[in-house]
Write a structure and sequence with these properties.
The protein is mostly helical. It has one domain: Helix Hairpins (Orthogonal Bundle). Helices cover about 80% and strands about 10% of the residues. It is built from four helices and two strands; from the N terminus they run ααββαα. Strands 1-2 form a two-stranded antiparallel sheet. The longest helix has about 80 residues. The two termini are about 45 Å apart.
Length: about 210
């Protein structure tokens, strides 16, 4: 330490400023980390509820499909699936969480015109209900995918912020404080040496008088 730091008052002022800056940065990063953790657990609770709803929708869709297969011919179902013009439009955007950009997925399902559906192939009520269930399922899958992707991004950012907090707390700040103490002690020792030297000089001068 003594080989790399010049023990002078200018260096002491620099070290004090660096300790203050590092401490402020440490405080801000801790607040950011805590905020990210809170946002993560909010998303986690939301994701749990959405996953439950998605599973229920999937079960309903599967039950509805079974009923449709019982009431309709397989050929009819194949023809219906091939002639459908419904499509899911997905728009990828982003939103900000604690300074972190996370994906925001917006979807819009464009349904086929009912008249055209009836014209191309016979459409039963159970078939329409099945379609609605699966359309809802696709929409819910997209929402869950958005939230879980955001959670992955948040976890990654939490880990990065945690490493920076720990680096400041256990490495950089203690090292700066130790350097500051070293310079202080060195300056105090220099002051004592100067006082002793001045006393000796004064004593010599007094002897000459």
């Amino acid at each position: 330490m003594s080989k790399t730091i010049s023990p002078n008052r200018s260096e002491l002022l620099k070290l004090k400023a660096r300790v203050k800056t590092a401490s402020n940065g440490h405080s801000l990063l801790k607040k950011k980390r805590d905020g990210l953790v809170m946002d993560f657990f909010k998303l986690l609770e939301n994701a749990k509820d959405l996953r439950k709803d998605m599973i229920l929708t999937y079960i309903s869709a599967e039950d509805s499909l079974k009923k449709t297969r019982i009431l309709s011919y397989d050929l009819e179902l194949k023809l219906y699936s091939k002639t459908t013009k419904g499509r899911n439009l997905i728009d990828f955007q982003s939103k900000n969480i604690m300074g972190l950009s996370v994906p925001q997925i917006k979807s819009e399902f464009k349904k086929r015109d009912l008249i055209e559906r009836q014209r191309t192939v016979y459409s039963s009520q159970t078939m329409d209900e099945t379609i609605k269930h699966y359309e809802n399922l696709v929409h819910q899958i997209i929402i869950v995918a958005e939230i879980e992707t955001a959670m992955i991004r948040l976890l990654d950012e939490i880990e990065k912020t945690k490493r920076r907090v720990n680096g400041l707390e256990f490495n950089i700040i203690p090292s700066l404080i130790a350097s500051e103490k070293f310079v202080k002690l060195s300056l105090e020792e220099q002051d004592r040496d100067n006082i002793i030297r001045l006393k000796k000089i004064k004593a010599k001068l007094n002897k000459k008088d």
